[in-house]
Amino acid sequence: MNRRTAILIDGGFYRRRAQILFGNKTAEERADEMIMYCTRHLTADPSEKRDLYRIFYYDCPPISKKLYHPLLKQQIDFGKSELHTWMTKFLDCLKKKRKVALRMGVLADEQAHFSIRYDVTKKLCAKTKSIDDLTEMDFELDLDQKGVDMKIGLDIASMAYKHQVDQIILISGDSDFVPAAKLARREGIDFILDPMWNPIKDNLSEHIDGLHTCCRRPPSMNQRHD
User: Fold this and answer.
1) What does the alpha-carbon distance between residue 123 and residue 81 come to, in Å, rounded to a whole number?
2) Which one of 9, 40, 171, 172 has the fewest CB atoms closer than 10 angstroms to its CB?
3) Is residue 27 a contact partner of residue 90, using CB atoms and an 8 Å limit?
4) What is the mean pLDDT of each run of 10 residues along the chain (226 residues)?
5) Cβ count within 10 A of residue 147
6) Start-end of H helices in 43-177
7) Would you state the pLDDT for residue 176?
8) Which residues have a Cβ under 8 Å from the Cβ of 135 and sit 6 or more positions away?
9) Cβ 148 vs Cβ 58: under 8 Å
């Protein structure tokens, strides 16, 4: 009997890891790549047949407001940025993919601001770097997502209680999923985590049924991953 498998993707996490593992790509190429990556999970174990229930993609729309940059001393219009254009195309591509459901959260853009990167702050405090040496690359956009983790947890709980699937594969590196994973396992769901070679805490293994990444580990990543 084939297992009904749902694949859940933490969108922000996937995009960051995919850029590291597979390089920069157009929005269309990244969308196709993600679907192919999920397809590999369905055939990853030759001893087990898996039927795709649905791919759930969790993310937020791109920021489109203007923010003041303290170093450049000017407003940055994110609605006209390359990232906004790329992200809009990427989400549009996913909407057209078969068996893909988008679960969109919201950005806390009213609290968005530029901040000095942590590593740069350490250098400033150690006086190995001065304020006059700061460049645009030393700043990062501080922007929080709302509702994404909650939607992941609710979907896991819903599928488990309704027995809609036999197996859940979560592509994420966030330990916030643990309570939902424990619930799913109590309901008899086989729970697989794919952290895409991102290091995870050792004690997470007791809350999942398997750990599997569907691509080769880059030589530069020496973290053990079974």
Assistant:
1) 30
2) 40
3) yes
4) 94 95 96 97 90 97 92 93 95 97 91 92 95 93 89 96 96 86 95 93 82 86 50
5) 16
6) 82-95, 118-125, 148-162
7) 80
8) 71
9) yes
Contact by Cβ (8 Å): 171, 200 = no
Beta strands in the chain (DSSP E): 3-10, 50-59, 66-69, 74-77, 100-104, 106-107, 113-116, 139-142, 145-146, 167-171, 190-194, 210-211
Cα 143–chain centre separation: 15
Q: What is the DSSP string of 117-142?
A: -HHHHHHHHTTSS-GGG--GGGEEEE
* Cα→Cα distances 110→79, 118, 163, 199, Å: 15, 22, 39, 32
64, 87 Cβ separation under 8 angstroms:
no
Number of residues that make up the chain: 226
pLDDT at 82: 93
Tell which residue, 46, 34, 45, 44, has the closest CA to residue 8: 34
